[in-house]
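Journal club prep — side note

Before the paper discussion, L.F. wants everyone to see what a predicted structure for a comparable chain looks like in token form. Sequence:
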Amino acid sequence: MALNWTMLNANRSPVPLPNEMTITTIDSGVDLSLTIPDAPPSSSSSAGGSGGVKKLKSVGKVWLTDQRFIFTTESNAPFESISVPLHSILLTRFEQPTFGPNFLSFEVKPSPEGGLTDGTKVEVRFKDRAMFEFVSLLEKSRERAIYMKRQIKEDEEGLPTYTMPAESSTVSMVGGVPVENPPGYDV
């Protein structure tokens, strides 16, 4: 997961990765809250410049692809974008509070040098649409991405190459027939 690493077009939509397919897009009314524990010190006024917990909130658009969850902000936001590979989403929760709108929360595994730390949490709320369908798509896409990553690892490891065994030192061969035959059977 990385903060402000998404390449954006002129219309602020993400540039797709090779072989990436968009599953769904939410074009407006998405609130995203980002909580970064133990954030490194920064010069921005929202972090206070001394580290500690950093909370960022913005309104923007969401793209769900077969590889990433992408959020881009509108202009003048505290951050520009957030990109989360689906296999880096560690834990998801669909929250349905008694008072207030439903929301999705998830924890992520940060990318090295991505501007985030372990324990980073994201909350997503939709202003004018139901969230359940999106959560379902995200879960299915995430499961598939994790499965595909495991398959790639297994394919890379592969099976060992079969080689013809050398003649065994424990069994003597005479004319291609083992000398120590198994015990005879009574008929």
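L.F.'s comment for the group: Residues 24 and 64 are 5 Å apart (CA to CA). Keep this in mind when we get to the figures.
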